[in-house]
UniProtKB/TrEMBL annotation:
Pfam families: NUDIX. Its cofactor is Mg(2+). This is NUDIX hydrolase. It comes from Sutcliffiella horikoshii. Transmembrane segments: none annotated. Keywords: Hydrolase. Belongs to the Nudix hydrolase family. One of its GO terms (molecular function) is hydrolase activity. PANTHER family: 8-OXO-DGTP DIPHOSPHATASE-RELATED (PTHR43046:SF2), GDP-MANNOSE MANNOSYL HYDROLASE (PTHR43046). The keyword Hydrolase applies.
Length: 148
């Protein structure tokens, strides 16, 4: 059975919009990169949280939300893409503080995966069909996949 964790953030809803409109919603948190391959979704195993999740992370310096998604995808999974399509914003609430935030979500479909190199954060990657039992998953990631 797949078990979910919320890691201190609760899903509120997913907002479809144009990429330029996302800047009307603040604060913008880190970006997600959703990759589809062979009809399944790329998941990476986070060794710190001990769960499967979508590639995602915080922006660094002056990078755009899209640049963040592309970088995080590469750092966590070894996958290099030249472009991602903006799908919308995930709105969430932090459990402890009640603070609301927004995660930009990007998507692309690829023909095949590139080789994975284990790193500090990610021990393995896999393609997931949304049904197979794979263990612990992040609640927010499941909700994102429901909207993509």
């Amino acid at each position: 059975m797949n078990l979910t964790k919320n890691n201190g953030r609760l899903f509120l809803y997913f907002m479809s919009m144009s990429e330029i409109d996302m800047f009307n919603y603040l604060p913008l948190a880190g970006s997600f990169a959703v990759i589809k391959c062979e009809g399944k979704y790329l998941m990476c195993y986070n060794v710190w949280r001990k769960q499967w999740e979508l590639p995602a992370g915080r922006r660094e310096g002056d990078e755009t939300p899209k640049e963040c998604a592309i970088r995080e995808l590469f750092e966590e999974t070894g996958q290099m893409v030249s472009d991602l399509d903006f799908k919308g914003l995930l709105k969430f609430r932090k459990v402890n503080s009640g603070e609301v935030g927004y995660n930009p979500v990007y998507f692309t479909d690829v023909e095949r995966l590139q080789p994975f190199i284990e790193n500090q954060e990610t021990s393995k990657i896999r393609l997931w069909d949304l049904k197979e039992e794979i263990g612990h998953l992040d609640e927010l990631d499941i909700r994102i996949l429901e909207y993509i």
